[in-house]
Amino acid sequence: MNVTVVGSGTMGNGIAHVFAQFGHDVWLLDVSQERLQTALATIEKNLKRQAEKGVLPAEDVGAVLSRIRTSTTYEKTFLEPSELVVEAATENPEVKFEIFRRLDELCGPQCILASNTSSISITRIASQTRRPEKVIGMHFMNPVPVMKLVEVIRGYSTSDAVCAQVMEISKALNKVPVEVRDMPGFVANKILMPMINEAIITLHEGTAGVEEIDTVMKLGMAHPMGPLQLADFIGLDVCLAILQVLHEGFGHPKYAPCPLLVNMVTAGKLGVKAGEGFYVYTPGSKELRVAPTFSKK
Ligand code: NAD
Hints:
Rossmann fold, N-(1-d-carboxylethyl)-l-norvaline Dehydrogenase, domain 2, 2 domains, about 45% helix, binds nicotinamide-adenine-dinucleotide
């Protein structure tokens, strides 16, 4: 299948990796050559890691990489024959709306347009195009080559045929697709984000410290990672943005982001990517240290 992936960041490079791994020809699109080079280097590193672990035959690494071509411009030459586009660009409605208007112009009428958005309404994205029945959510999880789930989100007008096709495409990538309706947060984030928010509220109220809260959830509920560490991994800005979508979308105070989360985002303490959130992160070190603000005096 001819697949185009728009956006080559954390998610886009993983999505391109998985499609190419399962034999599809991929065009990977981003705004700069530098980002594309970084993405290709990440894909190569991750493919080699899979080969070391025996997930992929070592001799396949080169073949998988050769199936990925890159572009910094939206060209009809590769978009017209694309059968599926998966958009994984920055989580900003205006950016995504503009991308979908362009894709709708340039892609052939057969092409399914999927978005990997975590929180933006698929129905709103679809309304930017003249093919809302072919617009769908394909919400991969991070890291894409490892995580099995794909949340398949049906917009208001998504056709049964397109939904069935995307479920099959996902299964053929060795993923487990789950079909859900287009509601704020879909299923994954509607349940996960209030839990993370509640963990932050619990910290803010002084009921327990960072490590204590994470330990309760790891050892008591068999979560592989505590909610505060997970929030750092996702990015606190991303958590805040999704909570705001839930709060606005359902209008219920239970989704109101904890003031501590708002303050941390304002202060730039965004988690792993900023080097500090609830924990501090030192490049090259796996040691988990509670951030000075939260360590016991
Ligand atoms: P990212 O910031 O790592 O990557 C986004 C990429 O999109 C960047 O490389 C940027 O240059 C590119 N981009 C921006 N505008 C573009 C345009 N007009 N055309 C082409 N490329 C463009 O972000 P990410 O974490 O990979 O997230 C991408 C999407 O996936 C978002 O919608 C996000 O909500 C969703 N998502 C993220 C995660 C996660 O854990 N990071 C998980 C699930 C879903």
